[in-house]
Amino acid sequence: MLILAIESSCDETSAAVIDGSTKIVKSNIVSSQLFHSQYGGVIPELASRAHVEAISYVVEKALANAECSLESIDAFAVTTQPGLPGALLVGANFAKGLAVKTGKPVFPINHIEAHLYSGFLESQDIQFPFVGFVVSGGHTSLFLVESFTQYTVLGSTRDDAAGEAFDKIASMLGFPYPGGIYIDKLSATGDPDAFSFPVATVGEFQFSFSGLKTSVRNFLSKTFTQEIPENIKPDICASVQNAITEQLLKGLKQAVSVYKPKTIVISGGVSANSSLRAKAEQLGKQTNIPVIIPKGEYCIDNAAMIGLLASYRYTFTSPYSIKFSVKSSSLRSPRK
Ligand code: KG4
Ligand code: ZN
């Protein structure tokens, strides 16, 4: 049972081939639109055009790396929401075209749900119920997950997503977009207690990063009238990273203590952050609850997670096509 999955919701064009029975990822190709960094955020129209240019190559490469032909694919899966409308349409229409050509079914997948269940790419032993934490450039949300079809949103950010806070503060420090990874790298040699930045106190399972952003902006403009000295940047990065990850951990701890899950699963781009990983591991040891975080390739946007969720959600016994439409979301408007 082979599934060819496609993801094109934002600035990554990705295709993957996954064995629906064994859940083995046979290939996962990701083409990242790095050129957006010069604009400081994702430009929707340019993203759509770049998806159009990349999609055929990415799909062909996914098939070639998996050593299989289009004819051997049993079903297609594609992200249909949420995302940039033009970007979503490229992947969805390409998948529909392949489905029509081959007479195989095509299944719609929600991008955030795919992140939520992406821990299963790391381990198939995840026990329900689990507390799922999706932390990306567009989302910061906690979930209580009962099964592959049943979950509850416990809480989300009231303003910026954690990745957005990382990226905006990175831009203040002069790093290119997306800057989360630069803050992470420089933090390795910095002191997380060098500067004290606020950790917002909001409602249970809720998050807020706009105050932190303002606080860092005010601190930088008051402290440095000229360029920010390079030798101070590691301490600033480590202190910012500490403030962001402390808040993330605070919400996660609340959810874990209230719902006592069997597993904790953290996913989305920010789950690649080394401080978040270290703190989450510590929480796992303290509570004796296994913590699953996908490896880097599956933290960022990727088609393997789309194919995987389709393999858990749908049975492929009778070939039929689900009718679907593409839905956009304000959550994925261009980030600046
Ligand atoms: O999941 P993702 O690839 O795309 C969205 O769905 O948004 O997440 C991208 C986000 C960006 O904000 C990026 O800066 C952040 O993940 N990110 C990181 C790290 N790696 C990626 N943030 C902090 N530390 C990292 N190591
Ligand atoms: Zn994502």
Kindly describe this structure.
The protein is of the alpha/beta class and 336 residues long. The protein folds into two domains: 2-116 and 298-313, 2-Layer Sandwich (Nucleotidyltransferase, domain 5); 125-293, ATPase, nucleotide binding domain (Nucleotidyltransferase, domain 5). Helices cover 40% and strands 18% of the residues. It has ten helices and ten strands. The chain has helices at residues 44-65, 85-102, 111-116, 162-172, 180-187, 210-223, 233-259, 274-287, 296-299, 304-313, and strands at 2-7, 12-19, 25-32, 75-81, 106-110, 130-135, 140-145, 151-156, 263-267, 291-292. The chain has a five-stranded mixed β-sheet, sandwiched between helices. It has a five-stranded mixed β-sheet with strand order 8-7-6-9-10. β9, α8 and β10 (291-292) form a beta-alpha-beta unit. α4 (162-172) runs antiparallel to α7 (233-259). It is globular, with a radius of gyration of 20 Å. Residues 330-336 have low confidence and may be disordered. It binds 5'-O-[(R)-(carboxyoxy)(hydroxy)phosphoryl]adenosine (KG4) and zinc ion. Residues 111, 115, 136, 268, 301 line the site of zinc ion.
Structurally, the number of domains stands at 2
What is the number of strand segments? 10
Approximate strand percentage: 15-25%
Overall SS class: alpha/beta
What molecules are bound to this protein? 5'-O-[(R)-(carboxyoxy)(hydroxy)phosphoryl]adenosine, zinc ion
